[in-house]
Each structure stands twice: as structure tokens, then as C-alpha cells.
Amino acid sequence: MTISIRAVEKQFARYPALRGVSLDIEPGELLALLGPSGSGKTTLLRIIAGLEFPEAGQVLFDQRDVTFASAAARQVGFVFQQYALFRHMTVAKNVAFGLDVRKAATKPARAEISRRVDVLLGLVELGGLGGRYPSQLSGGQRQRVALARALAVSPEVLLLDEPFGALDATVRKSLRKELRRIHNATGVTTIFVTHDQEEALDLADRVAILNLGQIEQVGTPAEVYDNPASAFVCGFVGEANRFEGHVENGRFVSGAVSFPATTASGPKLGFVRPHDLTLSVGEEAGFDLHIDRVIAQGPVIQVEAKTTDHRRIDAAFARQDVASLTAGTTIRVTARKAHLFDPVA
Ligand code: ATP
């Protein structure tokens, strides 16, 4: 199923929640909608689901205009942050629900429903737990049931709104891997809302980054990280030190910070990822950092430091590349890579 969003506009009491959003989602793709709180992720997901309708623009499923079709007519499966399982039903009944409520003409035979429930519970690694009630499950297990329930009706599209948001970090990480595995097994086109950039980059084939109701960039995790299209994306995806400054004579300068730059002269916003700072050697010009704290994390040495004009900088070095770094000392660094943007007006 190809999903095309065309120039969608949505307002709530004259507040523009979505401003001209266009996006194409390929068949079988796992796409993450990533953005800060209030950027419009859930609104876009609900418009794709048929739970909300836009003031302008179109939603196409395989070229079919479904902009104003009901959620039921769209054959979508949902998983929300809140488990939304039926408490009085067993796990198996919960998973079977979407099939049980079908009209006789399209309802599978009881034995077929039961077989399908078993397959799905196996897929989400809850085999044998069909007789339990939701209250007898952990939060992570409940979300697996919600996922199995959404998949039971063989949806053309699976929509997930912060499905792991209420779970602790360890469970989140393991469910993330599970979702990727399940997606690979089912191949269902999946759209996943999250405000957690690590989750989006880890899980998705492509990431669409929303800000203030607009899409700033769509790309693979590597593309948005390595080549951010805007200052917003650069600051939102991954860690970055941010500098307001200007380019002159082939260098970016911001107070005591200065490094080589290839863009045209003029005011710029500069971003440098912590691991793109390198120790400056020989005659190479750089800038000084006073080290406040050194944190050795496996193969990486994280450094919290200050510039000579007292701005906080995060740096990260491969352990094999640096001899010994000690808090209280000063190092000279330069940026091997930086992202420069025109300042927003
Ligand atoms: P979060 O991560 O906090 O869930 P989000 O990116 O999903 O945020 P949306 O829930 O889509 O953002 O909301 C976008 C904007 O639209 C917000 O400013 C929100 O307050 C507003 N909004 C959303 N739903 C409604 C509604 N039913 N009535 C009024 N305003 C709404």
C-alpha cells in the first residue's frame, strides 16, 4: 500500500496544527514521524487513520482518495500509547476482537480465528498466554497484545502512536527490536509516531521530521543525521554544539570558537557534533577547551568542557585516538565537520 499525503492543512480553533504537509510512504515501509511535542505528529497520524479530517489537501491509499473515508473503511490497524485492551476479556479474546465483531459474511470460522490468534501470539512472543487477562501482564506484554490485536485484521496499514511511551527504557528498547522483527515478518506498511529521536533512528527505514506543523525533512536515518536540511533538524536529531557566528575568510567564527568553513561569507548558525571535534595538532588553527569532566564510556571518551569565553561544549573522542585527558587541563580542538545554516529570520 502506497500512502500519499498531499498538501494537508488542519486547524484547531484557528490554530494551524498542520501547514501544507506532503509525504509519500512506500509499500512495506516503516516510517517514523518524529518531532517535538505539539509539532503535529498525532494529528497527521489521525488524519491518515480517518479519525480526523483535514481542511485542505488529500490522503491517497494506492491512488484511491480516502481523505474523507471512515477509519473502518480504510483497513488500518492502530496501537496507542495507552494499552486500550478490554480488561474483562482474555488476551486471546482481545486479539480476536476485530475478527469476532465482523459480520457473518466476512467473519472467519471459529477454528480459523483461533488458529490466527495462536499465530499472532507466537509472532509477538506471547505463545501460551492467551488465557490470561490484561491485568496479569506487564506493560510491555500488554503492548505486544495490542500489536497482535492490530495485526489480527490483516490491516493494509499499521499506525502506532508512541506505542512504547509509557514503558521503561529497557522494555522500550527490546520492544523496538521486536517491532522491527515483526515488521520484517509481516511487511505491513507502518507509520510510527515518536518524539524520541533515538527510537526513530534505530527503528525506521525513513524518518519524517515535523516542526510547527510542517515537515522539515524526510530521509533515511543516516541522511537526516549526516545531512540535516535545516538548523532545526540538526539540533533535534543527534547531539550537536550550536554556535551563532559568521563566516569570513574561509573560517566560521563565533567568539573564541573558530574552524574552517567552505560556505559563502555572512552570518551563520554553526553546529558541530561532539565526535566531529578533533584534537588540533601541529600548526592547525583551532580553539581551546577547558576540560570540566571526562567520562570514559567503553571505546568513547566523553568530555564536558568550556570555551575560553565560558560556553559549554560537549566533545567525544575515540579512546584509541587520545592519550590521557584530565579534568582541569586545556586542550586545543578543531571541527573536522560542521553544519552551517543561514540564521532564521
Ligand atoms: P505530542 O508529542 O505532545 O503528542 P504532537 O506532535 O503529536 O504532540 P499534535 O497532538 O498533533 O502534536 O498537536 C498539534 C497541535 O494541535 C498542538 O498544538 C495541539 O495543542 C493542537 N491540537 C491537537 N489536537 C487538538 C484538538 N482536538 N483540539 C484543539 N487543539 C488540538
Strand count: 20
Looking at the overall shape, the CATH architecture of the largest domain is 3-Layer(aba) Sandwich
Main pleated sheet: 6 strands, mixed
What is the quaternary state of this protein? single chain
Keywords:
OB fold (Dihydrolipoamide Acetyltransferase, E2P), binds adenosine-5'-triphosphate, Rossmann fold, elongated, alpha+beta, 9 helices, about 350 residues
Structure in words:
By secondary structure, the chain is an alpha+beta fold. The protein folds into 2 domains: 3-235, P-loop containing nucleotide triphosphate hydrolases (Rossmann fold), CATH 3.40.50; 244-341, OB fold (Dihydrolipoamide Acetyltransferase, E2P) (Beta Barrel), CATH 2.40.50.140. It has 9 helices and 20 strands. The protein has helices at residues 41-49, 71-74, 91-100, 110-123, 139-152, 169-186, 197-203, 221-226, 231-236, and strands at 3-12, 15-25, 30-34, 56-61, 64-65, 76-79, 157-161, 189-194, 206-211, 214-219, 241-248, 251-254, 257-260, 266-272, 277-279, 287-297, 300-307, 312-318, 330-335, 339-341. The strands form 4 sheets. The chain has a 6-stranded mixed β-sheet with strand order 6-7-8-3-9-10, with helices on both faces. A 5-stranded antiparallel β-sheet has the order 13-12-11-14-20. A 5-stranded antiparallel β-sheet has the order 15-19-16-17-18, with no helix packed on it. Adenosine-5'-triphosphate binds at residues 12-13, 15, 17, 35, 37-43, 195.
